[in-house]
Design brief:
Strand content: 15-25%
Number of strands: 16
Order of helices and strands: EEHEHEHEEHEHEHEHEHEHHHEEEEE
Number of helices: 11
Mean pLDDT: 95
Distance between the termini: 37 Å
Length: 373
């Protein structure tokens, strides 16, 4: 998949002789990437691009997405950034996986190519301050502290994390431990690279953990671990959690059924969408043939923000990168403004909403909001 052409229903975008304004779009569209998230992200990006063109494009010029599949591969993402920069894109948008987005952000900033990251949450998205990079999703430290507060409020003090080896999972574990330990909590780490699902069950029973957090890929190894825990009578009252959002998507419910309900996870939606968000949600549902995830809204907001910045500041990369602190856009989830956040090297939307939700055991297609932060 290479490009998304200008939206066909935009008369101004179709006028002959107009050079399109191109935006490079990064998303995990093939395995081992989390493809469901990638396709939701792309649906949001494409819907917004069509809406931009329906409203006249960028000062009369059509907006065109140039899509590249990152497949959860940092090297592939960095190469895509080089290619897109060579193709003359005005900016980059997208990406879901944090480690992949980090590679893309470092390369984009080195090239002076503006990059608005849609979904990746790793605090250290860049090792050094990156003036060309901005982010819509909240940093991991904020979201996972909110999750830790939810655990404490629900009475959980003895937490186990079943984790794969990854910078992202390691950072999440550190956030949880740093927040829970001073408040009387404990965090026991279980290595999914060395333990079978049955081993995880034995460890949970041994440590008397009241909650197990799955810091692991979906469907493997997360789904087999859930099945094993649900079937172990020793663990009947053990809470299973998935802060990274695995239960958000339809395949989780399809693979696990009732076993996949009551698993709290983080999502980045407000209590109420804006009027724009309500309209966009209906269009995304039609496009996806299912309920849109928060990732789809992140994709839509990404292009909406970039389009407004391009209209106000032009397509020159340096001018666009310098405009992040002056951006003010009403998105699907609230007003978007970027600022500097301590410890974060990129321009950050500080107002991104954070919720802890789960699938309702009585109605698995319904999400219950358990906590907000």
């Amino acid at each position: 998949m290479n490009t998304t052409p200008p939206h066909p229903s935009s008369p101004r975008a179709e006028r002959a002789g107009e050079t399109p304004v191109r935006i490079g779009a990064l998303a995990p569209l093939t395995r081992p990437g989390w493809t469901e998230a990638g396709h939701h992200l792309l649906a949001g990006l494409e819907l917004a691009a069509g809406d931009v063109n329906d409203s006249g494009g960028i000062s009369g010029r059509p907006l065109e997405l140039v899509v590249r599949d990152t497949a959860a591969d940092p090297g592939k993402a960095a190469a895509a950034v080089d290619e897109l920069a060579h193709l003359g894109v005005a900016a980059l948008a997208g990406e879901y996986h944090s480690v992949v987005a980090r590679a893309a952000a470092a390369r984009a900033d080195a090239l002076g190519l503006p990059f608005l990251c849609s979904s990746a949450v790793l605090d250290a998205l860049t090792e050094q301050p990156a003036p060309s990079v901005a982010r819509l999703s909240p940093p991991q430290s904020r979201g996972w502290r909110t999750y830790a507060d939810f655990l404490l409020g629900a009475g959980h003090r003895h937490i186990a994390v079943a984790a794969q080896s990854s910078v992202y999972w390691a950072c999440g574990t550190r956030v949880l431990r740093d927040h829970l330990t001073p408040r009387g909590g404990t965090v026991t780490e279980l290595d999914l690279g060395a333990l079978t699902p049955e081993d995880v069950c034995d460890a949970l029973a041994h440590h008397r953990a009241t909650a197990l957090l799955l810091l692991a890929g979906h469907p493997d190894p997360a789904v087999p671990v859930v099945r094993a825990v649900r079937r172990d009578r020793r663990l009947a009252t053990t809470l299973i959690g998935a802060p990274a959002g695995q239960p958000e998507f339809a395949t989780w419910a399809a693979l696990l059924g009732d076993d996949g309900t009551g698993v709290p996870f983080l999502r980045y939606l407000p209590e109420r969408l804006t009027p724009l968000g309500v309209r966009v949600g209906a269009a995304l549902r039609e496009r996806l043939a299912e309920a849109p995830s928060f990732v789809a809204y992140e994709g839509y907001d990404t292009i909406t923000v970039l389009a407004e910045a391009l209209r106000a500041h032009g397509v020159d990369r340096a001018h666009l990168a310098a405009s992040w602190p002056r951006v003010a856009v009403d998105g699907t989830r609230g007003p978007v403004r970027f600022s500097r956040t301590p410890g974060i090297g990129v321009w950050q939307w500080a107002g991104a909403p954070v919720q802890v939700v789960d699938r309702d055991p009585a109605q698995p297609g319904r999400f219950r909001v358990l906590h907000t932060g």
